[in-house]
């Protein structure tokens, strides 16, 4: 998609010029002629296309924003979401060149949000469709009138990273395996001249990553550990580690999922897909931090060699885990990955995982969980989430009685504490494998990683939720 900030920069004919309106916005001259249609124009979420018989565009569009939010960040979220709806609707009408006028002069934050919305609204995963029942048009040209071009470019890169992650997460288990994930990581590292380490199933065992290995050994496809390193051109401002859950398909193992529960389990690799999308974007964004991207890729299958309930496994840091539920496999793989990452001594660790069904029960389908005892890290991540337009709710791990749910007389810790308080007990389990001196936060995106209908800036399928927040956090010295 090509972006402009003045209509004259685009030499062809624009298909549509859109006007966003708050409740108290004056009607622009171009749409005032149609004011008899304006009863609902300013209502939040309203979107109407008006054909033009004459002039430089084929269509005008009016986009209602409702009451103007007091906070600048809420305005940018609204602009992002409604731009996505504008593009999504326009492409169903076979439109490919768009212009947008905001009700105020866009600053850098708003420009970036609009660019993200335009790219994300353009997204549909149709790779495997052989019939063309979806729109044939894609938004090829987008003009944000008076927009900040540098910020627009940043927003484009962020949204393209999200689409990259969505595409990977939407790929089915017969296409993406642990081996494929490692190959994709190597391709990114080669393209951007990053350092990369990939451990095979033998090296994983030799290094004592037995929790990761046990989860993956029930599949005919062996596990892989991937460790990528991005380094900025200058002196890095710090060292941040991102750890993604990468279960390329989760059958539940011997505790096999139900017919309904097993659907969409191709998306249990979403955390690692987000990490790959982020690592792929860092060079273009000129991230000022040294960033380590890690994941342990496995397939959780009920083979005769699969790990079992009651098994006791030793993780890399020496702690033992009693398996209560083979469908609580993500935290077992992350145990080793967090222990491995702790040896790198980063300034902070953030893990991203489709971890618990309890997150859905606690938060619904539009808010992710954020679990951490580190106040400063949480504050920075929540500030980044506000700018990114992603909702998180923080959980703290200070309930000693809840911690007892993952006690077991047979090992240091059990891998499941039952459904009650499941987001927190999962975080408590993971905490056992993180160096206590390293600031660490766990993002549980299980409630928000997949949508079965389009809305706001989300299409059908994988959402790549948390990716924008992580990029905001990593780019905070540069993004305004």
Written overview of the protein:
The protein is of the alpha/beta class and 480 residues long. The chain folds into two domains: 2-145, Leucine Aminopeptidase, subunit E, domain 1; 160-474, Zn peptidases (Aminopeptidase), CATH 3.40.630.10. Helices cover 34% and strands 21% of the residues. It has 14 helices and 19 strands. It has helices at 29-32, 72-92, 108-121, 149-170, 178-192, 201-206, 210-216, 270-285, 329-342, 358-363, 375-388, 400-403, 422-431, 467-474, and strands at residues 2-4, 14-22, 47-51, 57-66, 97-101, 141-144, 195-199, 224-230, 239-250, 290-300, 312-314, 320-322, 348-353, 368-371, 392-395, 413-414, 440-444, 450-451, 461-462. The chain has an eight-stranded mixed β-sheet with strand order 7-8-10-9-13-17-14-15, sandwiched between helices. A six-stranded mixed β-sheet has the order 1-6-5-2-4-3, covered by helices on one side. α8 (270-285) links the parallel β9 (239-250) and β10. α4 (149-170) packs antiparallel against α8 (270-285) and α7 (210-216) packs antiparallel against α9 (329-342). The longest helix is centred in the first third of the chain and has 22 residues, at 149-170. The protein starts with a strand and ends in a 6-residue tail after the last helix. Belongs to the peptidase M17 family. Its cofactor is Mn(2+). It comes from Candidatus Infernicultor aquiphilus. Its EC number is 3.4.11.1, 3.4.11.10. Mn(2+) 1 binds at residues 250, 327, 329.
């Amino acid at each position: 998609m090509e972006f402009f900030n003045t209509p004259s920069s685009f030499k062809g004919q624009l298909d549509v010029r859109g006007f966003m309106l708050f409740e108290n916005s004056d009607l622009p001259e171009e749409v005032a002629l149609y004011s008899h249609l304006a009863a609902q124009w300013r209502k939040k979420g309203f979107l109407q296309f008006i054909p033009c018989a004459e002039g430089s565009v084929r269509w005008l569009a009016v986009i209602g924003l409702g009451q103007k939010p007091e906070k600048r960040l809420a305005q940018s979220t609204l602009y992002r979401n409604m731009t996505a709806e504008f593009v999504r609707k326009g492409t169903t009408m076979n439109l490919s060149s768009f212009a947008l006028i905001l009700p105020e002069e866009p600053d850098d934050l708003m420009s970036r949000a609009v660019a993200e919305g335009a790219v994300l609204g353009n997204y549909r995963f149709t790779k495997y469709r052989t019939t063309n029942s979806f729109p044939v048009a894609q938004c090829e040209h987008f003009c944000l009138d008076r927009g900040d071009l540098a910020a627009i470019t940043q927003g484009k890169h962020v949204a393209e990273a999200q689409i990259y992650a969505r595409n990977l997460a939407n790929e089915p288990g017969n296409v993406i395996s642990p081996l494929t994930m490692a190959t994709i990581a190597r391709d990114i590292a080669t393209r951007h001249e990053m350092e990369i380490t990939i451990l095979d199933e033998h090296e994983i065992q030799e290094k004592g990553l037995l929790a990761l290995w046990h989860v993956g050994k029930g599949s005919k496809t062996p596990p892989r550990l991937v460790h990528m390193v991005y380094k900025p051109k200058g002196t890095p401002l710090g060292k941040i580690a991102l750890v993604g859950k990468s279960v390329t398909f989760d059958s539940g193992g011997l505790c096999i999922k139900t017919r309904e529960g097993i659907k969409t389990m191709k998306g249990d690799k979403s955390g690692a897909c987000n990490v790959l999308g982020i690592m792929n974007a860092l060079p273009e964004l000129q991230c000022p931090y040294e960033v380590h991207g890690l994941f342990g890729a496995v397939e959780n299958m009920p083979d005769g060699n699969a790990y079992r309930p009651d098994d006791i496994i030793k993780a890399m840091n020496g702690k033992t885990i009693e398996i209560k539920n083979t469908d609580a496999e993500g935290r077992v793989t992350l145990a080793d990955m967090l222990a491995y990452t702790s040896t790198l001594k980063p300034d902070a660790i953030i893990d991203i995982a489709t971890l618990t069904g309890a997150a859905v029960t606690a938060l619904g389908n539009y808010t992710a969980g954020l679990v951490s005892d580190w106040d400063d890290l949480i504050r920075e991540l929540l500030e980044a989430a506000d700018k990114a337009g992603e909702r998180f709710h923080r959980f703290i791990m200070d309930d000693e009685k809840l911690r007892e749910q993952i006690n077991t007389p047979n090992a240091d810790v059990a891998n499941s504490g039952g459904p009650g308080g499941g987001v927190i007990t999962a975080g408590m389990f993971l905490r056992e494998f993180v160096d206590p001196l390293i600031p660490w936060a766990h993002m549980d995106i299980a409630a928000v990683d997949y949508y079965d209908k389009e809305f706001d800036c989300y299409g059908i399928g994988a959402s790549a939720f948390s990716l924008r927040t992580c990029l905001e956090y990593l780019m905070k010295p540069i993004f305004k």
